[in-house]
Amino acid sequence: MAGYVALVRPRWSDMDVFGHVNHAKMVTLLEEARVPLLFDEAAAAGLTGLARGVVVVRLAVDYRAPVVVRGTEVRVEVSLAELAFASFTLDYTVYNGPSTENGVAVEARTVLAPYDVAGGRPRRLSEGEREFLARRLDGGVNA
């Protein structure tokens, strides 16, 4: 099981002509799942650096089944796959509904890097950020 679970509600406008959540909108749903973790929960833990700048370095999305807008949330489980000094990798499992009963619809991975917006360059994760990610996401990776 993932260390973090978000329920994200697709909107009617997220659908393509076939009634499935469009690829670009799926990427947005992944973002909506991770933002409360990286911004709100990290800030509540006294870590404001992630909210000041994180960039996506790499994104991969694998579709197992269509995600259909049914007026309810989709379950997005997020886990930590890799933790380096200047980046971290999140794995996502998206279910077609708020529980796991409908099976996995999407598996995705993002490589993220903390970014110094004022300086215009990537930065290293602080020790506190590394500890937060490892502890909160319980990914079993080396911190």
From the alpha carbons, calculate the radius of gyration and give it in angstroms. Answer: 15 Å
**How would a textbook summarize the main sheet?**
6 strands, antiparallel
Overall structural domain count: 1
Average pLDDT score = 91
Low-confidence stretches: none
Gross CATH architecture: Roll
Question: How many helical elements?
Answer: 3
CATH superfamily: Hotdog Thioesterase
Q: Say what the CATH topology is.
A: Thiol Ester Dehydrase, Chain A
The number of distinct β-strands equals: 6
Structural class computed from helices and strand pairing: alpha+beta
Order of helices and strands: EHHEEEEEH
Helix content: 25-40%
What percent strand?
25-35%
Query: How far apart are the first and last residues' alpha carbons, in Å?
Result: 19 Å
CATH class placement: Alpha Beta
Shape: elongated
List keywords for this structure.
single chain; 143 residues; alpha+beta; elongated
What's the short story on this structure?
Keywords: Hydrolase. This protein has 143 residues and is α+β, with helices and mostly antiparallel strands.
How is this structure best described in words?
- The protein is of the alpha+beta class and 143 residues long.
- The chain has a single domain (4-137), classed as Hotdog Thioesterase (Thiol Ester Dehydrase, Chain A).
- Helix content is 26%, strand content 34%.
- The chain has helices at residues 23-44, 49-52, 127-137, and strands spanning 4-8, 54-63, 74-83, 88-95, 104-116, 121-122.
- Strands 1, 2, 3, 4, 5 and 6 form a 6-stranded antiparallel β-sheet that branches.
- Strand 4 (88-95) and strand 5 form a beta hairpin.
- The relative contact order is 0.22.
